[in-house]
Amino acid sequence: MNQLIRMLLLVLVLGFALMYGASALNSSEGYSGDSTLTIYNWGDYIDPDLVSEFEKESGIKVIYQTFDSNEAMMTKIEQGGTTFDISVPSEYAISKMKEENLLLPIDHSKLPNLKYVNPRFMDLSFDPDNRYSIPYFWGTVGIIYNSDMLGGRTFKSWNDLWDPSLRNQILLVDGAREVIGFGLNSLHYSLNDTNEAHLQEAKAKLNRLTPNVKAIVGDEIKMLLANEEAAVGVVWSGDASEIMDANDKLDYVVPEEGSNLWFDNMVIPKTARNIEGAHKFINFMLDPKHAAQNAEYVGYSTPNEKAMDYLPEDISGDTRFYPDPELTSKLEVYKNLGKKMLSHYNELFLEFKMHRK
Amino acid sequence: MRPAAEAQAQGRTLPRSRNIYLVPYLLWMVLFVFAPILLIVYDSLFDVEGAFTFANYAHFFTPVYMKMTFSSFWYAFLITAFSLLVGYPAAYLLTKTKHKQLWLLLLILPSWINLLLKTYAFIGLFGTYGAANAILETIGIGRRQILFTDFSFVFVSVYIFIPFMILPVFNALEELNPSLIDASRDLGASPWTTFRRVIFPLTLNGVKSGCQAVFIPALSLFMITRLIAGSRIITLGTAIEQHFLVTQDWGMGATIAVFLIIAMAIIMVLTGTRSRLRR
After folding, report:
1. What is the domain extent for residue A256?
2. Is B248 touching A (CB cutoff 8 A)?
3. Residues A263-290: pLDDT tens digits?
4. Is the N end or the C end of chain A the one with fewer CB atoms within 10 Å?
5. Closest-CA residue to A97 (of A137, A126, A60, A124)
6. Measured between CB atoms, which of B49, B231, B252 is closest to A174?
7. For the ABC transmembrane type-1 domain, which residue ranges apply (chain B) (predicted)?
């Protein structure tokens, strides 16, 4: 018994010693209180050089963690175990987090570099006046295609997908808003349309697309298209740039009828401790030079207007990822249609999936 | 004394303090079996906006979900039927081999590998430029689409579920008294009659539990429907996943889950208790 107590004591003493040691180490390295900043971002979504540059410039230590879905990120922030100071959710997640009071308001007076952001990307329906979020990257939904496999054919319009010669050649991304959205777009309706007749018309049209659809898949779409499993895909521009890196026979186009415009924005979650540092970081990333460096590294489109000057011509002039104003005016951001409508969209999507060839 | 009566008599004579050992099991049952089911039923009574309603149940009986239910049952049936068709002879041959345990281990071994990994491997194998198509091409049939078809879906599901069919059938065959087969043969029955009248009826319990172990999870498959069938097959499991993760319509998701639980209970009753009653 005595031995047991001695063992327990030893374990406790060791535990405390280690705890003290860790905290001493942390403070000597600068990991304590106001001098750290915990960033919670998508995997491979920032230039690591910028993180070290920010650490050097501000004297703040950065702890960097990654997530792979908005849902997973929201759950972790809701639980509140870790003190995340910065996160980068997509627009629909932002409006959800806002509703659930998971975000802290952003003080624009602490962000002098905010003026460089293109006004086109500010004050959007998911976050009026950008009270809670600042644009980080943006992109579109479009068609990626392999001309080699299709005898040199190219794409311009959503309606090109209905061509009977494309039988069993199309992969779609598994997203109700994306698929119903391009169905509506192909009929020249808004992708936020809630008119029942329009929605039924779009679904009927999508049903006619079924013979051409090989599969509706998730993230695997990148691998399948790069491996030439199918010749055409409907994907997000971010995925498209990754696929094109893996297989340069593929090309991407934003269809002329218009499409979706999506955003990943920087926010300060309610778990934040170093709010001052979070503002410093956002301002740092808004600096045109840093934004340009980041866009070059990640390959997504930057919302920073001034940063375009620092980007090489072959990136900033690439109309596939920086569409011209005429097309841009046709791009729409997803509106938060409410849970009921979203549920309805999803059910239409399920019906489309169940439609047999 | 019959086993059940024996246990009962023992239970009566057990000292009270022994009951304390039941607490962990009871707690487990309440926390992880009854409470979740009650929560699902509770969740199913609310709509997207959180208002109390029975509309979800009415909604379940619309053509969309009826079609989905039908296709779930149809594919679960196909998967179970093929598992039995392949699994029964395999289990039978297994009992005849010399190193039974080794063969059994080899059959079960793949189920130690993560399900997702195995499914991903099939994407590679069945792809247009995969191994399966390379073989088809060398034997002169030529490339065809294997991935994202009904065939690939049933094939991969059978592959994944087959150990759960073989094991109970194998155990039932092992327990079979060989003298019964000898007797059947001595009395002049052909091998087929022996199988039909002696072996199969006596291993029926193994077949039933095998069918349960395959049919019930097959009803709620969801990941394979997307990865292997390219979302062209929609099961109730897929719909539940969508409602909980994408639409956040937990009420509808829970309602489908309630129907799945009811369906499974019915299947358990149909395939399970009858044999016990007969005894």
Report:
1. 139-261+332-356
2. yes
3. 999 999 998 999 999 999 999 999 999 9
4. N
5. A126
6. B231
7. 69-271
